[in-house]
Design the sequence.
């Protein structure tokens, strides 16, 4: 039986047993997978430069499909995004997008799109596009692909074009108008008209136009605060890479 191949983006790598590495990676056909790279710590030859988080690689898997664990036979590096790695802020945005893509990789019909969206975001960060604007735009895009599309166009309570002051309802996953604020299910987070307009625009644009959007600091911070709380509310946990992003983003303006 021939070995199987899959494009992959590395999500996490950790030591396993005496000599092995346990690798989680995103694929376009099967979403997120976990695989074991036997003896990879002793001999890196079969995985030269492949086992770095965020690298885009081609994996050769053992012929039989694993149940929980794939067996990685070898890997070939496709793109390591070296420029992105030298800039902490771009690295922080990339790590956050990769973690979200790995967590939201369902439903299966969305695997391919989620993989492509993450690959494009990494390539844009590598090219030097500003992480401050790419991060909220692509987080919103990934949420939509993963089945958590925030409802931004009409009030989730009364369905009217929402009037200020605007809020975002975490349980309802959308904008709440000023008139419905008292009755709407909370927690509610404030949403400024500026951030709301930008997010609506980001949601309406096709992906290839997202790099044109620019989020000023206030709109960026408010959007990210909402996404962070929204993900925590619906996934029941905090994302590991969020604190790294906040640290580097504070340190680098
Ligand atoms: Zn309303």
Sequence:
């Amino acid at each position: 039986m021939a070995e199987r191949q899959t494009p992959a983006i590395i999500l996490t790598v950790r030591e396993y047993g005496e000599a092995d590495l346990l690798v989680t990676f995103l694929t376009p056909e099967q979403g997120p997978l976990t695989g074991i790279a036997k003896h990879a710590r002793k001999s890196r030859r079969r995985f030269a430069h492949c086992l770095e988080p965020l690298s885009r690689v081609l994996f050769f898997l053992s012929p039989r499909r694993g149940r929980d664990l794939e067996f990685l036979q070898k890997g070939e590096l496709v793109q390591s995004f070296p420029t992105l790695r030298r800039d902490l802020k771009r690295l922080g945005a990339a790590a956050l997008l990769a973690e979200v893509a790995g967590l939201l990789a369902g439903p299966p019909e969305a695997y391919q799109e989620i993989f492509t969206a993450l690959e494009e975001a990494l390539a844009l960060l590598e090219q030097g596009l500003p992480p401050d604007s790419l991060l909220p735009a692509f987080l919103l895009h990934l949420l939509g692909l993963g089945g958590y599309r925030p409802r931004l166009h009409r009030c989730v309570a009364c369905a009217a074009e929402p009037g200020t002051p605007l809020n975002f309802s975490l349980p309802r996953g959308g904008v709440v108008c000023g008139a419905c604020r008292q009755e709407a299910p909370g927690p509610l987070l404030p949403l400024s008209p500026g951030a709301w307009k930008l997010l609506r625009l980001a949601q309406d644009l096709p992906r290839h136009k997202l790099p044109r959007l620019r989020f000023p600091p206030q709109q960026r911070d408010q959007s990210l605060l909402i996404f962070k709380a929204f993900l925590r509310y619906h996934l029941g946990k905090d994302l590991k890479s969020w604190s790294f992003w906040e640290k580097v983003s504070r340190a680098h303006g």
User: Anything to note?
Assistant: The chain has two domains: 4-80, 83-251. The mean pLDDT is 94. The longest helix spans residues 217-235. The two ends are 54 Å apart (CA to CA).
